[in-house]
Amino acid sequence: MRASRLVSLLLLLQTRGRLTAAELAEELEVSVRTVHRDVEALSEAGVPIYAERGPHGGIRLVDGYRTRLTGMTADEAEALFLSGLPGPAAELGLGTVVTAARLKVLAALPPELRTRASRLVERFHLDASGWFQADEPVPHLAVLSEAVWETRRVAIDYERGDRTVQRTIEPLGLVLKAGVWYVVAVAEGSFRTYRVGRVAGAAPLEERFERPDGFDLASFWAESSAAYEREAPRIEVTVRIADERLWRLRQVVGHGTVDRAERLPADDPDGWAHLRLRLDWPEEVSSVLLGVGPDLEVLDPPEIREQVLANANALLDRYASPRSTEPPVPAGATVMTPGAGSGSAGARG
Known about the structure:
Layout: H1 2-16, H2 21-28, H3 32-44, E1 49-52, E2 58-61, H4 74-82, H5 86-91, H6 95-108, H7 111-123, H8 141-150, E3 152-160, E4 163-177, E5 180-187, E6 190-195, E7 199-208, H9 217-231, E8 234-241, H10 246-253, H11 255-259, E9 262-264, E10 273-280, H12 282-290, E11 296-300, H13 302-320, E12 334-335, E13 347-348
Antiparallel strand pairs: 1-2, 3-4, 3-7, 4-5, 5-6, 8-10, 8-11, 9-10, 12-13
């Protein structure tokens, strides 16, 4: 405890210059007497620290002295090394920078913290992507990242479903959400969010822009994400499902959705559970639930049950139809009918 306080006292003097004993006591939440004892201990340890008396006096370090101590606790050092996501850093073009920074910090740490940080890297690894999801190509992420740093406008081609639109944006920040990159920008006078993987082209422009006063990227993202989740269209669906297939339902609609579902009392002939789910995007619900398989049945509402049935019938028709194994006939080719003689003209394709 005292060692940590001595480091804090040193760093305060190093960053702020001369401070009175009372000011140090207030910062460190100790008595003035304790500050004087700490100063004596540092001086005896060889630190060039001294006190000046008088109305303009105080405690200070000899000019030019800088400690190599970082002041990091064990938890702080571990958090620093746990936060290094090599994949996203590399996508931003910062992979080598992050590696070099971690090496420098590791070299500056006291031996006991250096050991703990090294053990952490050996034992923990963060992977931001979900299962069965290939990394989304983001060839224009580096351009957008540089434009964010330089507050430079960017002309982008953005894919929206069946068409590509052109936009001039003022990129304010980049966000990595569940392995997907987004750029938050001002476009056409309002805040917009674009998925970086859908940016088909990006060209930095000469014009720079002024960042909005007081804009905070983290706060904006939290508010916009909450608004998106709050305003997304939803529908309540009642299903019956075998308990041993709940894991599959969680995979399809999300763990949180299933965990928040209302379990309804029911005398089910098969002993299945009856759940009332709140699902987003009603037009996609029938196809999504069909992915659970035959161990789930939609009970309500009727329109979703009918959509599931229609999709299942369409799937059955698709697979019930015999699939031709004959190779396609080139346009204009002559196809000989079975049994046709050499003098027969046959059929023309």
